[in-house]
Amino acid sequence: MAGTLPNAPRVMKTVMDTDDTDDAALDELSEIWEDIRENYQESGNSDYDRTVLDCAARLAADPGGESAHVWTIGLTMMAPYLTWLPGEGVVRQAVAALETADRTLREHHCAHDSHPYRSHDEAEDEHLVELLPALDDETAAWVEERPRDEWRCPLNAAGFARIALDIVHPGSVPDVPPRLPAEAKEAIDTLSALLHGYPKPWTDIDGEISSHASELSGAAPADRAGRLMVVRAVTWYAVSGMVRTKSVLDDLIAAVEETLPHLADAVCGHDGHPSLPDSGPAAAELGIELSSAGGRNVYEQSRIRSGRNPPLEQVVCPVLMAEIADETLSLLRERHDEIFGERDTSHADAEYLRADGRLDIEKLVERTDHKSWNEQYADDLALWAARRHAQSDERDRAVLLLVARQAVSNSYPAPPLAVVRGVLSTMRPVAAAPLPAGCSHPDEHPTLRYARFREGMAHFWDPEAFPPGAETRSPESWTCPRFAASVAEGCVAELRGLYKDEEPSDAG
Asked: Nearest Cα to 37, choosing from 97, 89, 84?
């Protein structure tokens, strides 16, 4: 559970009032430490702060004592909380106790060839809660590969003190197994959810993506390749149409443009380069991992241990990164123009008008049907119909209004800015026009779904060429101002506020 730990003060007092750690108290205390390890993302939790400070005080009181291994492991478990937002002075006191313990404990000598801390990585942290109570209980079952005496050894306690210090200040300790910084793990978790299409409820999507552009712009040379990989990953999401804030794409473009000069003179002696992940979540995870010294060490250690994956120098090769930057920038610029630029629909005349200049009603009906294959036509068709609406006669206006409405609804995931502006410039006057008190036709307004709509609109526009369907409406119902207003109002409600950077305005 996250939040308060009502038993923490009582349990800590039980332990600290005894000269030796009590097995029952240590079992309960390790559970509290595990709770903090699992739920470390707490800001200024007073119970967490008190538990950390009590543990640090115990270690500082006897940094070379027989129970030092307990307190260093305890602070290792709670160290992720110290990377978040603990209370004032908590980090300072914990770090001071750990540094003192490390210096003191390393003065000891032992006959061990090695110690558990040398191979202890992040994945094994979750087992510490079960291990701690068994360390001082010779009767407890022992399932660890390394013997108890190595775990209890002062040099192993010093090693865990340095592991905790490295968690709090990533990269500060050279002789412990590398770890991803806590903030990198959080970034991976947040981006993975976002790029899978299910962002966490508190995620500011625009801010999250723009933050990675900023990270690339300010990246140190060693971190630049990883940061570029992250931008590559978020670019795919940003240009998909899921992001409708122009400044976000502007930020990404500027960041890649600033990066290119650093790669301009890149050369290498590699025979080839590895293929980078082609899915957003995997590409972002690799990029974040390679954006810190600890992450790069984790990558290399994993590669050596598994025998898989290419060497780091090939993955971050400047020549490969130059190619990635060029490809990413080209995609960003292309989609930026498509989403936010002007849109030419003059080519649509040849597609949707007959040779005699009349509407090709059959094609219009076909391409306004709500089918996935009509998404490819939706944007140009909606804008073309909206732009043509004002210069048409009453019958064509009725059809073009409906075509614009139906087509823009087919756009996926959202229509570009020019389409929104153009459609709204047509729909808003129709929605705001004065209306008669009632309809002049006795029948209902047309249905805007299914075959009834397709058959009905074709028959209305050309009753001689298209026989009536199962549901026929009078011509007056199709041209009814009240019907047109309701269609326009629905469209305006759907499109209004879709883009955050600019209020849609009339298309030129």
From this structure: 84
